[in-house]
């Protein structure tokens, strides 16, 4: 019997990316829930497996450990190529890589920084917490949403006409804007349409 397991962080955005990816693939992996609020990830089973003490962490049958959300997703993409969530063909795969990185670096990252450096609940997580850094990241996220809105006027999804990991990163980043206290400007109608469509997919509740 398979003993693969995914150390999961509940509402935290990176573990959520992997759960959504698995739901889109129709793959079930037993989850090991970690209480991040109680800082369980800073010690015990997680720290033993990931020296960065971050989630998610995937452990394979033979004990091999994989960390980094996108690396974990890539592993499952290779095991089960359909539906393709990292693109198809040389150009399609490169376009998904391009938009996945753009959305991660220009939206997901600044939103995370805004949350971690400003929210009082993150004081013990982000040391030192630098509220000014958190604040300057809010307009960075909004600037990228303006750019993305223009792109989404031209196509259905972030990287093309097919749903991909770039959309998963985008959905999780936009949902994370709420606790980070950043509002999606309603005039960005293409972003609003895209986000609503992603949220309506069954995988969004994974
Ligand atoms: N680059 C990693 C980031 C993982 C990460 O930062 N996870 C957060 C939860 S969303 C975490 O475990 N934070 C714990 C901490 O900061 O102590 C990935 O893509 O998986």
The set of bound ligands, ions and cofactors reads: glutathione
Distance between the termini: 24 Å
| SSE succession | EHEHEEHHHHH
Shape field: globular
Description:
- The structure is a single chain.
- The protein is of the alpha+beta class.
- Helices cover 51% and strands 6% of the residues.
- The protein has a four-stranded mixed β-sheet with strand order 2-1-3-4, with helices on one face.
- Strand 3 and strand 4 form a beta hairpin.
- Helix 4 (89-118) runs antiparallel to helix 5 and helix 5 (131-152) packs across helix 7 (189-200).
- The longest helix is centred in the middle third of the chain and has 30 residues, at 89-118.
- Residues 9, 12-14, 41, 54-56, 68-69, 125 line the site of glutathione.
Describe the structure in brief.
With 206 residues, this protein is α+β, with helices and mostly antiparallel strands.
How are the elements arranged and paired?
Layout (H helix, E strand, L loop, with lengths): L4 E4 L4 H13 L5 E3 L10 H6 L7 E3 L5 E3 L1 H11 L9 H30 L12 H22 L12 H12 L12 H12 L6
Parallel strand pairs: 1-2
Antiparallel strand pairs: 1-3, 3-4
Helix pairs in contact: 1-3, 1-6, 4-5, 4-6, 5-7
The structure holds glutathione.
The site of glutathione has 11 residues, from helix 1.
From the structure above, extract its key features.
four-stranded mixed beta sheet, alpha+beta, 206 residues, binds glutathione, 51% helix, 6% strand, globular
């Amino acid at each position: 019997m398979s003993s693969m397991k995914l150390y999961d962080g509940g509402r935290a955005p990176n573990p959520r990316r992997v759960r959504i990816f698995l739901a889109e693939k129709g793959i079930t992996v037993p989850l090991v829930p970690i209480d991040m609020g109680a800082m369980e990830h800073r010690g015990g089973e997680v720290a033993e497996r990931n020296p960065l003490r971050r989630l998610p962490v995937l452990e394979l049958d033979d004990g091999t450990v994989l960390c980094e959300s996108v690396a974990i997703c890539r592993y499952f993409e290779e095991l089960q190529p359909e539906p393709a969530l990292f693109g198809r063909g040389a150009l399609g795969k490169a376009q998904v890589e391009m938009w996945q990185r753009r959305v991660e670096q220009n939206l997901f990252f600044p939103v995370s920084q805004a949350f971690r450096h400003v929210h009082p609940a993150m004081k013990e997580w982000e040391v030192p917490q630098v509220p000014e850094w958190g604040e300057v990241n809010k307009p960075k996220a909004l600037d990228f949403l303006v750019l993305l809105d223009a792109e989404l006027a031209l196509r259905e999804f972030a990287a093309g006409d097919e749903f991909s990991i770039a959309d998963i990163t985008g959905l999780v980043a936009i949902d994370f804007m709420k606790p980070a206290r950043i509002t999606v400007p309603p005039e960005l109608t293409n972003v609003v349409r895209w986000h609503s469509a992603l949220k309506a997919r069954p995988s969004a509740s994974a």
